Amino acid sequence: MAIDASGVKKVAKLARLSIDDDAVEVTAATISSILELVDSMQAVDTLGVEPLAHPLDAIQRLRPDQVTEENQREQLQGCAPAVEEGLFLVPRVIE
Amino acid sequence: MQWETVIGLEIHVQLATKTKIFSGASTAFGAAPNTQACAVDLGLPGILPVVNEEAINMAIKFGLGIDADINKVNVFERKNYFYPDLPKGYQTTQLEKPIVGAGHVDITLADGSTKSIRIHHAHLEEDAGKSLHEDFHGMSGIDLNRAGTPLIEIVTEPDLRNAEEAVAFAKKLHSIVTTLGICDGDMSQGSMRFDVNVSVRPKGQQEFGTRTETKNLNSFKFMEAAILKEVERQIDLIEDGGTVIQETRLYNGDTGEARSMRSKEEANDYRYFPCPDLLPVIIDDSRLEKLKTEMPEMPDAKKARFIADFGLSDYDAEILSADQGTANYFEATVHASDDAKLSANWIMGELSRSLNQNSIAISASPVTADMLGGLIKRIKDNTISGKIAKEVFEVLWQGECSTADAVIEKKGLKQVTDTGAIEAMIDDVLANNTQQVENYRVAEEDKRGKMIGFFVGQCMKASKGKANPGMVNQILKQKLDG
Fold first, then answer.
1. Chain B interface, best mutation among A13, A87, A93, by max B CB count within 10 A
2. What ipTM is given for this predicted complex?
3. What is the pLDDT of residue B384?
4. Where are the CATH 1.10.10.410 domain residues in chain B?
5. Shortest CA distance to B25 belongs to which of B38, B39, B42, B43?
6. Are A7 and A30 in contact (CB under 8 A)?
7. Å from A25 to nearest chain B CA?
8. What is the pTM of this model?
């Protein structure tokens, strides 16, 4: 499997990554080589192997339903570029 | 042409946990913006989510409540998309291995028939924050208090065939989650939100038509209106030679208007992958067994018991078993009054009217089940008439007294059952209405039944409603006919 220039542009858009036009072809070739590696791995017989959800052979510990995080708005908004009335301000988004 | 509507629902139910699904921040409604959004909810670097045990338990209870299989191995995945109210850039959700597998919810329709609606699955996920589009100098304000609130998203099979069925289903689901105590059921605060997938097809056709999805309907009324409107739009469109395109639509409940939100031509590519921050959650048998013992009586079982034990009609039993608060109130009232039928009538009549008018939940009713039970007792033993009882109820509602007996005593509302007193009052009424008495006596036998009503009315008025109506009737008849 390979990815072409338009595929790279689409994935970049979905991931909100900016790629210079002159880097698109190179990136397509690089990603394609990774996909080729995946293709060759596809040849391995995995019939009867459970899909691995996580590399660690452990299970999730659960947390009791108790409030442990108190209000830290002042500190947490310290690095925000714009806040007002306790809200984070972002470029206007309306669909 | 005859058209058939096909509807499937996706319902987001906010779980009634105290804290978020992956963090220890509070989920209490109505806090000042961003005061309940911690580093985990904000998706700051270096954070590690830890799963809330109660969210897992509540999701399992939902599964048990709809006869579904519970998946023992649960994997959380990342659904990637960008939106300011989702600061992590992905929503942590479930895809391949949802916690609740296939189940069913049975609904009762207006004609009394029942229909089983299949549930495809229900999965656990986190809610997003809220965007406020009021004018902040041309910017949007973001409140992340809701970000990370645990949700179960329930997905039905396309088994619903009209708006009526969809609403009956939604109400039943509301009843199930509130009975289970896993959701507060407050739709005005977004605790339950419905997405409706609607398509139409010529009657008899097997294949489904193209569907649209109308998102985020937060009342039964809006859901019904949105479905009716969308069905009409699709049929008009096709009959005019057009084709329905698959798209997401928005319905504005206040204006009744619907519009396209975004077409899915660039089909959402969410690039799901298993969340590396979360290990699989394993649900073992001991947890399942323990939760089974904690299951409350479900609405269907409760309804059947109300019919069998209290002799209620199907209709009354359906209403009184629909939510836990009403069911508890009803049972407590029956316990206090020892009369199921009167309890049912008063709860569905006077009480619910007063609660609705004042927008009060039954659990917060100023007239408690004990108070109402005490009132019903006095109707039963003829201390007061049904009419006076409404006056007593009003006084109890206003909080002037705390028992019906106290109201009756204080206001002197005890029914007059003393024959002598009633006779004297009747004599007065007859003496003051000699012409009517004459008319009555010369009237045909079959007209008299109606005419006696006038005298009963006068007597009740003279006694300020306190005379026992049965006795008034009987004595009046004797005196007039004699």
1. A87
2. 0.87
3. 85
4. 419-481
5. B38
6. no
7. 22
8. 0.81
